Amino acid sequence: MRPLKLFLLFTFVLVALKPTQAARDIICEVLDNTSETLDPRFGDEIGFGYALEALSDASDFQLPRQRIFPTIATNNGSQFRVNADYLQAYVGDVKAEFTGIVFHESARVWQWTGNDTAPIGLITGIADYIRLRARWPSKYWPLRGSGCRWDDGYAVTAYFLEFCSRKRRGFVSDLNAMMENSDSDSFFAILLAQSVDELWKEYIMSHNETDDLEPAIAPEHGVLN
């Protein structure tokens, strides 16, 4: 299949990058290179209007006590691209999947990375946690309690962060704020008084004991219509 090259472009104007500053105007732009493709699903099932709405809502999405958060898709600074071939071949509700991707990639734009010292699994895990909290998970995510390490990334780490957040309100926001200039596993102990390895072990045991391997909330309960 010829690459469809769907290109989603974020442009941020005067956006604050410090926890003490307020975010200002955000301009969202969508560029679509699939117009010459026969029956592209982006145009037929998602569309420009909804794409812009999803981009805007994902940017505005706030977690409790959030402190700036700034293959399927890739991002580079304030831009990210979505693979239109992935959307075209997706089995299921492509509009819901597209929305979840937008929330994930928007988080990647805003979040801190410890000056690129944080493990990529934590970075993608925080982004999928935002997607999870926004109620746009993918139906193809693994079950809760899956994974070998806390920083396996994506949904595995997102579920682990969800577990940690039950111990401290606003945990992920606070963790993200601490990652502005550097990253350390000790941040977990500072915030939760347990090492990250202890927390991971407790998380896995809690699911093994209850056999509570549950999928995420269904996409149809998302924040967008």
Descriptive account of the structure:
Helix 6 packs across helix 7 (186-192). The two termini are 31 Å apart. The chain contains eight helices and four strands. The protein has a four-stranded antiparallel sheet. 44% of the residues lie in helices and 9% in strands. Mean pLDDT is 78; it is low at 1-6, 10-24, 62-70 and 217-225. Strand 3 (73-76) and strand 4 (79-82) form a beta hairpin.
Q: Helix and strand succession?
A: EEHEEHHHHHHH
Q: Tell me the major beta sheet.
A: 4 strands, antiparallel
Mean pLDDT: 78
Strand order of the biggest β-sheet: 2-1-4-3
> What is the 3D shape?
globular
Share of helix among residues? 40-55%
Rg for CA atoms: 18 Å
